[in-house]
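Obj: model holo form, ligand = pyridoxal-5'-phosphate.
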Amino acid sequence: MRVSSRLGRLRPYLFAELNRRRDELLARGVRVLDLGIGDPDLPTPDHVVEALCNAAYDPETHRYPPYEGTSEFREAAAERYARLGVELDPQSQVLAVIGSKEGIAHLAWAFIEPGAIALVPDPGYPVYSAQTLLCGGDVFPLPLLAERGFLPDLDAVPPEVAARARILFLNYPNNPTGAVADLAFMERAVAFARRHDILLCHDAAYLDISYDAPAPSVLQVPGALDVAVEFYSLSKPFNMTGWRLGFAAGNRDAVAALAKVKNNTDSGQFTAVQRAGVAALRETDPEFSRRMLGVYRRRRDFVVDALNAAGWAVPRPPGAFYVFAPVPAGHTSASFSTMLLEQAGVVVSPGVAFGPSGEGYVRMSLTTPEPVLAEAIERIGALLRGERKELPRKG
Ligand code: PLP
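Output (holo C-alpha cells):
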C-alpha cells in the first residue's frame, strides 16, 4: 500500500507525545484535568434541540439536502449579517458548510495549487497551513507577536511573496492568542488583499466572544465583498460543536468556487440540523449570548487573577475562550506543558503546536466547568510554589 506523498508534507502531530503521556497517567488512575481543547462544556439551547427533534420526524428532511444549504438556513445566515449592517444575497453570497473547519479546508482546494502561497497566521489554527500543504502550495507564516497586539505586519510581506499569494487567512477574535482586531486593522487587510489580488479569508469562529466591545466582521469594511469571504460557525456561540454547522459569507466568486469543490466532495449537512441552525440564528434570546459571554469572562478573570496571584504573569485576553500565557523563564512551551501534565496532572496546549511563533507560550481553554478550573489552577499554583503533591486519583 502506498499513501500519497502529499501526506508527507504535513508536520508531525505535535500533540501526539503529550497525548501519549496523558493516556499513561489516565491508565495509572490519575485524575487528569484537561484545559487542552476548546470545546464548550455547556449545552446547546433547548429551542435548538427541539427544532432538531421536530425536523428529524419530518420525512422531508430524510432526503439529500440541497448542496449549497437550505434556502431558509442561508436566509437566516444573511439576517445574522444584516444585524451587523452587512447586506448579503443569500443565494449567491452565502453557502452552508459542515462546520467552518470543513469550509476552510475546501476553500484551500479552490484557490491553492503548486506554486501558490497562503499567508497564514503564526501561531494559528492548524487547518490553514495543513490544507495549503495538502494542496501542494506553500505556507508563508505571518508572525503574531505580543508587542503588535498579535496582529500580523502585512507591510512585512515581501512583494514576490504577495505576488504568489492566493489566500490571506486571518482569524479574530483569535485562537490561540485571544487577541481581537479592530475595524481599522480589517480595513488595512482588505486594502492589502485588493492591492495584491488575493482572497482574504476571515475565520470568524469566535466573532461573538469578545469581552470589551463587539469584534468586527471583515464584511463590515466597505468594499470587503470584492475581496473577502468570512466563515461563521455556529459551534461556539450556541454550544454546537458536535452539530457541525456554519456558513461561508462574502465574495460571490469565492463562494461559487467553494461550492464547486464541495459539490464534488460532500452532499451537505442534514436538513434537520440546518433547521436547528435556523432556530439558533433566528430565535436565540440575546440574553443567552450575554450569559455565555459572562460565563467565559468570569472564568477568564478567575484564571488570570489566580495565576497572577501565584506569581505567573499572565495577560488577560480580550476575546475567544483561551488564556495564552508566556511560559516561565527557562522553559519551552513543550517542556512547560510536559511539566504541568506530569507534575500537576493538567493538560494545556503548547503554543508551538500552533506554529513556530507560538514558542514560549501555552494555551489554556476556558471551556471547563468552574470546579475543574479551580482545581487545575490550585494544582498549578502549588507546583509553581514548589510544593510537590501526589497526583489525585480518579473517583
Ligand atoms: N476556526 C478556529 C480558529 C477554531 O478554533 C475552530 C475550532 O476550534 C474552528 C475554526 C472550527 O470550528 P467548526 O466547529 O465550525 O468547524
